[in-house]
Predict the structure.
Amino acid sequence: QVQLVESGGGLVQAGGSLRLSCAASGIIVSINVMGWYRQAPGKQRELVAVISSGGGTNYVDSVKGRFTISRDNAKNTVYLQMNTLKPEDTAVYYCNVDATTLQGTGRKRSNYWGQGTQVTVSS
C-alpha cells in the first residue's frame, strides 16, 4: 500500500514560517485529493487544506491568506507552506492522500495517513 513520510515540522516563533512536506511511495496508479489535517491537544482533528488533482484548493478559514498547499505530481509529494504562524497553529500536522494503487491483479482506491509532524509556535 501507500506509505507517507512527513517532514518539516519544528518550533518557530509567532510570525515565522515553516514548510511541511509529505512524500508518497508505493505502486501508485493515480492520486486524487491530497490534504493536510492538524490536531491540537484536547481538540478534534481538523482539515486544514486540500488540493485536487487539477490543482484546485480549499482552506479552513483560520489559515486563509497565510497557508498555501501545493503538490508535485512527478514526486508524489504535497506541501504546506505556513506563513505568519500563530500560537493557535500549534498542533500535530498529518497529511492524507486519496490514492489508487496497483495491488495484485486489480486496483484499490483508499485514503492513507502520514505519521504526523509536530508544529509548535511560541509567542
Observations:
- The mean pLDDT is 96.
- The two ends are 40 Å apart (CA to CA).
- The chain has no helices and eleven strands.
